[in-house]
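Suppose you are handed a protein chain with no further information: no name, no annotation, nothing but its sequence. What can you learn? This example shows the usual starting point.
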Amino acid sequence: MDYSKEPHGVFFLIDNKSFYASVEATMRGLNPLKELLVVMSEADNTNGGLVLATSPMAKKIFHLQANVSRQRNLPQDPRLIVVPPRMNLYIKRNLQINNIFREFAAECDVWPYSIDESIIDMTKSWRLFGDSPRAVARLIQKTVRHRLGLYTTVGIGDNPVQAKIALDIYAKHDPELLGEIHYETVPEKIWTIANMTDVWSIAKRTEKRLNRLGIHNMRELALTNPFYLKQELGLIGEQIFAIAWGIDRTRLADNIAPKSHSIGNSQVLPRDYFDKNEIETVIKEMGQQVASRLRHHHKQTSCLYLSVTYAYAARVEGERGGFSVAGNLNYTDNDQEISELLTYLFESQWQGQPVRNLAVYSSKLISKTAQQLDFFTPVKQQCQEEDKLAIIDEIRSRYGFQSLVYANSLLKGGTAIHRATLVGGHNGGNAYE
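A reasonable first move is to predict its three-dimensional structure. Written in structure tokens, the prediction is:
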């Protein structure tokens, strides 16, 4: 492979190690790497609270996994500290950490990748802070550790994908929590990865498709004809071939507009819902929330998508895991019209199974430039309905969602009022505690 024409830069991908658990440990004056601590959401949930984060030591000793383990999996060990999430605090720490990164690179070169990961293009600035990119990465680690008490792992590469693989595969197991991959070390660092699902963007389903083609590791992937991969796998074939060679031509500064937009909402219900009226109450709430977001973005939709996932008990008894169904309607952002279609879609597919997850999405969006009137409703009534929705949105914008709710949210099973107090679906807590 001729790398001379590929982009060469200095990129850091920085991960805040066990972020939620580490923040909670530091707030208690504890060492994040040595303490036994888990962050658990909805501990009073009938299905058992979900472990959102676990300290490295708790993961090692008790084999707990974030977003997999539940309350029932926790050991009865008095050393283990279990705390609720405080999303506002984690967001505050994330902002503080990224502000530290901006001391080492221009703001346009710092890209938050998630709440606990960031990409930094250090190409233009690393020489200001050290003799090598690795030395600069160590300085950033020490700065974050000194100011916030948090440990960070850093992947270093000539492009973002090399930095990501260096982070995931090597940095997390390095004594200094650093990993490096460069074009000249691709055969040594990437081709030797035996488990392809350890590599970013290669999931189990993709791995199975590759296995059927006789490809079982990254070296075999890199040495496969790229035209054959594209023929068999499509665009993803080209992408993972490039990853196997450590190639990434992404320009982080490019502002790429998505080809299509979707506005939606999803949630895990606080318990298994058996009652049809309770399920439809939540579906209507979600439809109202999607409609409100459409109006906020001055959009209208003509296609709604409803996804329903059944409770665990229904799945283990041999039932299908749920269903997904879509329906069309005239372009609208009206609460009632959207909720009515969603309810119809639900009733057309549901056969009495207990429900645990719901998702609602809108697509085929257009910009709302005028109000479309129909022949069957008085014009005055249509205008009043439009004004009513605008007033509701204004009140909620000024005083919060809970200041004005539909009566159905007060019915048994309604979740909208409680969820309005959450941040990212979890307890917001107090950022200043």
